[in-house]
Amino acid sequence: MTRPALDALTRWRLVLGEAADGACRSAGCSLSGEAIAMDAALDWLYGREEEDGTRNIARQGGRGPSALTTPQWINDIHRLFPKETIERLERDAIERYDIDDVVTNPEVLARAEPNETLLKAVLRTKHLMSPDILVLARKLVQEVVRQLMEKLSRELALAFSGVIDRRRHSRFRIASDLDFRRVLKDNLKHYDPKTRRLTVEKLHFFARNQRHMKTWQIILLVDQSGSMLDSVIHSAVTAACLWGLPGVRTHLVAFDTNVVDLTRDVDDPCELLMKVQLGGGTDIQGAVAYAASLIEQPERAIVVLISDFFEGASEAMLEQRVAALTAQRTLVLGLAALDSDAAPAYDRDMARRLLAAGADVGAMTPGELAGWLAEKIGR
Fold first, then answer.
1. Checking phi first, is residue 145 left (phi over 0); if not, alpha (psi -120 to 50) or beta?
2. Residue boundaries of the structural domains of the chain
3. Pfam families recorded for this chain (predicted)?
4. N or C: which end of the chain has fewer CB within 10 A?
5. pLDDT tens-digit map of 293-313
6. Nearest in space to 311 (alpha carbons), one of 268, 242, 256
């Protein structure tokens, strides 16, 4: 994603640190927006050093309301800085300040609480890890992936289980299918006016009409640039959950300037994520061309393009390729984000052009994507 360039005074202020605040203000410069977050990230690292060049180990940096943890710092610098700067910051953290608690310290990884923040930090720094640390990191990745899959599997099962039929009831107990009116009617006799409590002795659940589907191809194209890491994680988990569904054949393809077909690893999302190479340029039209080559029955294929839509190759060719897919009645969904927050940052002009070419465009959580796919497939 292209970022607005910082002005020269702001860049000097970030380089010189807090000591330059006075001179910076005198020149009419004050930090705002992302520059504040950049300053906090730089101070977290370089604030460990005194003005005379000696190390200040006690100081942990950061003038914000809360101190960054190492995983949070890693994720922040990957969000805020260009690739060359990130590499220098990570190298200084490890070689100059011995901040190795994620990439070299087995005790820290062994006791770390598995969560998405730490997962992202591991994926961003796995190339720096020794083989024994990678073994521990892989266990952490497996646990976070397991948690994500457990949640998404329930959402997928519900989305693909059919439409509620309020004329029939079922012995299967699914909370969202509860027939509240009948439950209330059948159990009112158990209401105690003194305690104002209703004892429920029998529950009733609506049935669902089963979907009868012919086989569909679902091709997930995932932009693996650094800014899309959340979407990469959730795409891998989504693909793994779709893999076991009847009537669905799933492909997972990662791309930057190259295209890598990861379909054979879809049933092991941990292994898949450990193979992802973050960063690099973006050739979206090339990825769409590869997806087109996989399609067997155009009218029973769905291409889900997960990207920020900042095309590094030919924008005109990207439009043409998407228009060609929709013209053959292949469904195309462009997702600017696929994660738990669905808060995208993307090229809005290109998104509008893809919409005009016949694609659906939006941002979704994995559960919302499951619902969208189930709706399209179930028609």
1. alpha
2. 8-138, 163-209, 216-377
3. VWA_CoxE
4. C
5. 999 999 999 999 998 889 988
6. 256
What does the angle CA 205 – CA 211 – CA 212 come to, to the nearest 5 degrees? 145
Number of Cβ atoms within 10 Å of the Cβ of 57: 10
- Tokens read off for 232: 């990469």
Q: What is the pTM of this model?
A: 0.64
168 backbone φψ class: left, alpha, beta (φ>0; ψ -120 to 50): beta
The predicted-structure confidence for 111-137, as pLDDT tens digits, reads as follows 666 778 778 878 888 887 888 888 888
The C-alpha atoms of residue 368 and residue 344 are separated, in whole angstroms, by: 15
| Average pLDDT for 23-30 | 74
DSSP letter at 328? T
Pair 284, 313: CB distance under 8 Å = yes
| Pairing mode of beta strands 216-223, 248-255 | parallel
User: In the predicted model, is pLDDT for residue 23 greater than 50?
Assistant: yes
Q: CB atoms < 10 A from the CB of 215, how many? A: 12
Q: What is the mean pLDDT of the chain?
A: 79
pLDDT in tens, 311-342: 988 999 999 999 999 999 999 999 887 877 76
